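Protein modeling request. Please complete all fields; requests missing the sequence field cannot be processed.
Requester role: graduate student
Desired output: 3D structure, token encoding
Chains: 1
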Amino acid sequence: MAQQMKWLGAMDPRDSKLNLLLLAVPTTIYFNYFQHDSSMAFASSLVAIMPLAFLMGRATEEIALRTSESLGGLLNATFGNAAEMIIALLLIYSAYQNKGTDTEFFYLQLVQASIIGSILGNLLLVMGLAFVWGGIHFTEQKFSKTQVSSNGSLLLLSMIVLIIPTVFQSTVGGLSGEEGVRNLSRIAAVILLLIYGLFLFFQFRSHEHLFATEGSHHEDPEMSQRDAIILLVVATILVSWMAEILVHSVEDAADKLELPHIFIGVILLPLFGNAAEHFTAVTVAGKDKMDLSFAISMGSSTQIAVFVAPMMVIFAWGLGVPLTFEFGMIETVSAFLSVLIVNSIAADGKSNWLEGAMLLASYAVLGAAFLFHP
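Delivered output (374 residues):
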């Protein structure tokens, strides 16, 4: 651990300032276990997850430097989504512990909202920030059109899965509609996981050459692989602890702070949970490593849609919890339009700061809509 602390001290000054937010970890413990203040425990746990998720991202980036940019992007996307996956799993388990109550419905709503929020956050906020930051340093940046095509197609497929259950419920309605949506969601979850497996095989085995990046962006690792793995494990454990506190305090905190449940799920949870993607994708964009930046941001959305979301449905199915892909009209429309916007902007394989500003503007409008949602 001494080696990890030594490495942390030698980090970029901006990173060291971010590590000051690690003080939120003992603050969360204090408010949760000693003061029993749910609203403060919720707020401080959100803040604590951000630097911990960032450390997970930095450790993963160190590991990814020893791989190709495509595999590195997959690793960053996977562990960048780890905080959100942990929060979602704990929310589903809490719903299982409160079966048949309004609290179960509250937790399931948060899971669904956080899934949509993760897709929106990665597509609009993270990618927008990366385009802006990269555009400030370089007039125009390029990335693989193959990544846009494959990830965009997979995201559009996932949007069908999100839209159909919502339309089915509004068309059929009643108890038969609810039962049909549950069965439809479980079948769709299995199909999405199969498609994601085929996508990984396509990317890393059968058509690996299509994802090969042009030019060399070599960067020497700052940590040994052993130290990076240890840092990743420790950060993951602490994220899980903070996430558990967050989940158990979120319901009381939502009432005390008078925040809409949908705003917490769509905006707040992914905003802080996506900290790893924020910093990693933006940082590498500033180094003109747009293939990696794009793989992290859009790859994270793809992974949420076709891996994390179906995994959550299957996990809930195993516990007998009725989690479905019926997310609601405003959430579904927002996600669908975001995919269309990103596919349109990124279709030429080029980016600039203005396109990033457009993505950020779209995210701001959607954030306002969820804030005022009853």
